Amino acid sequence: MLTPIIGNGRLITARGGDGGNNTAASSGAAGGGAGGSVAVSTRYFATSPALNADGGKGGDNIIQNGAGGGGGGGLIWTAGVFPGTATVAGGQGGIHSAGDPNKDGLAGTIRNNLNLPLNGFLFNEIYVAHSLTMLDSICEGMIPPKLTGTRPAGGSGTYTYQWQRSYDNLIWANVAGTTIDYTPASTEAISLWFRRVVNDGAGIIDISKAVRIIVHPRITGNLVGADTTLCYNQDPHALWQLNAGPAGGTGIFHYSMGAESR
Questions:
Q1: Which of 16, 49, 92, 159 pairs as cysteine with 7 (C-beta 3.0–4.6 A)?
Q2: For residue 61, what pLDDT band results from cuts at 50, 70 and 90?
Q3: Are 32 and 57 in contact (CB under 8 A)?
């Protein structure tokens, strides 16, 4: 199934570590560690986590000069504008009893144009649009639901799409779908699979895992009767089945009776 990022109020962090304090004479405290890098490439955030690549705090020196400087902020790089909180602040410089002022680290960088330089695959996955899963079911004679795909990344950066259909998950045939998503247009009578082929035009062809659509057979043979004529205030005759009984569907049937006045 699709795995969106679900923040749940949590934090994705590459924060630099704090520098150690030093109280020995004629020696300095440790500097704060620089922030690292956080790269996030996704088409969907269910809820956004906070992203943090701040620099670490410099160590304190309480005997004399020599407090540690703050670590520089790191890099946060996302594919598109990140909807949550992202910080790359420089770390605070350590404190000392006298002398030079504190040295805070410089802030880092936040970018939103991530395009991963991948080779061999293009982040090609597909799902049922309404449920974001790779399995769904319909009844015989219905049109399968819309299918949606991840936005490819890597390769040349220019992509073409071809959707395909199979009734045995072995032999595949192209369908009239050549965009990032696909909406089937014809009804189906038996279970089938769909997949998407992405081509970057420079030698990388990526075939997605298949989405399966289970087609439940139509219920047939539901015949009871027969027609009869009765007078006012008379009870109708008992009803009985006129054949071997219902078939199709899942094979498990529950019955209820209804009446219609005309």
A1: 49
A2: confident
A3: yes
